[in-house]
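pinning this so it doesn't scroll away 📌
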Amino acid sequence: MTAGFYAGIFAALGAHMPFWPMWLSDWGLADGEIGALMGAAVAARVAAGVLAPWFADVTGRRRTALALLGGLGIAVYLAHLGVGAVWALAALTLLASVALAGALPIGDALGAAAARLHGFSYARARSVGSAAFLLANVACGWAVAVWGVDAALWWIVASLALMTLFALNHPGGARDGLGRPRMTDALRLARRRPFLLAAAASALVQASHGPLYAYGSLHWRAQGVSEATIGGLWAVGVAFEVALMALIGGWIIARLGVWGAFALAAATACARWAAMALEPSLGWLWLWQASHALTFTPTHLAMIAFVSAAAPARLAASAQGLIGAGLGGVAMAAATFGAAAVYPAAGAAMFWLGLGLAALGLLAALGLRRGWDGGALAT
């Protein structure tokens, strides 16, 4: 059930991220309008990623909240088929971002709870999501080429229906009703030094990817790399991510601990972005893209492990939202805007911004080593 949930939501994300801007363009939006709408969607994702998990914790019905978000997403995407005004299109696209962003931290909290309750590997279940994302990139791209960009919309709707089905029966929600937290409980948790250090380590290392996500493809194309090769460069990173998460994801946390996993990801990210800033040859570029497995996967698994160990069970979804969508979303937005300021004038120098963020993330990880004993935090 946990793997099925991740398959559904990441199949939707794997179609939304690359193909939704194309759908908006075919509808009639100009490039500048699409950019403005995507920027507004970032703010919507941050708000939804914090508030929706908190609501799920307060009500004690995380599975229900997850299913409602899935239903909202299905309804909103279908409503795009009949939209005729720009303001309505913008509202629907923002609501779609709310549904997707709100669902993921709740699903992560349920996934960690299910792994703990039923004794399976969270990393392996989560790797199914990464594999579904990669499959969606390829299969939905083929569908769009054959049937047009509306195929992406129907792919997303079908994927969200799958997600909703598994959400209603998610094994991580078997013990809903652990006590109703107050907003002050979540704020008290967020002020604890170990929580701030873990949140900073996660947010900074993940945000260090921002310049690559925003301008990597454009930069490589400007260097003469073909579109097909660019697609392969993105795919190899996700493929190695899937393999690492499925094969040794659990071992990384067991062997290195939370702070060690954060530190591994941050140190690798420092090396990766330094190499990218020096514009490596295509052969080396494949290697550095494969290192995505070490810059993303340990960071994500460390965040899940930290919340599972440090946050009270009644605040698990709220904690995931505060770290991933809250501080993480703000940091990613800042990194993206920073890259937008640097890239037009200095090109690959934007990757030095990523290195700086990763270095700060490494410092936060080292601080967590000294500042957290591995136990639960009082709220």
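📌 and the second one:
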Amino acid sequence: MAQAIQVNLVNAVRVHDTSPQYRQLVDRLRQNDNLLAALTAADLNIANLLPCEAAAVTRNGEAASTAGELDYLALQLAETLLDTGDQEQVCIQRAAEGREAREDDTFCSVLAVRFSPSEAGWLLWFRKQDASSGDQTRWTDADIAVAQRLRVDLLEICLAQATAAREAHTQAVRRLAHDLSTPLQTLDMSASMLKVQDERNTDLKQHMVDAIAQLRQRVEQVQQLGRGKLP
């Protein structure tokens, strides 16, 4: 598919008050670990926030869309947008050339907002060409303001989720270290109380002591991880 893609950088605009529908979507995002699914759910999604025909989201090489087979197109656009540097908002004008247009070729205007630079996270809204005039519809300041507000909220949500995940990991490591320490102490005490009756028993006891020492070292490393330190 031959395409002409024009990328226009968009300056930030003032964020307007949000609608109840917007707040409902953000509340859902705060309670959902799968942001791609929550942003493109059938009953309420980002396509409901702006006048558009469809919307999509990309993150960590994955994509989800609200209508049609737009996942592949969204990933293509996310790759194209790597050249935009630190710009967080971009308008894209697309035009299919050289053959009969497919369904995804009819989306000629795209508003793209990056919410996670390190994960190639983009919000994408798609509009089709105006059937009556043949003109490409433009994104207004109000459209960009809503998109910008969602980007800011998503940044906060992603940060909160990452913090919660780190805390959960730390707590799990601490519990593991504690659970390992108790039986290890029992083994250590039992080994020290063994009576040595012959040379063979002496060797067996030494093997147990050495194994317990290795386990204790591993437990100490796990405890360091629980404190946020590298062993």
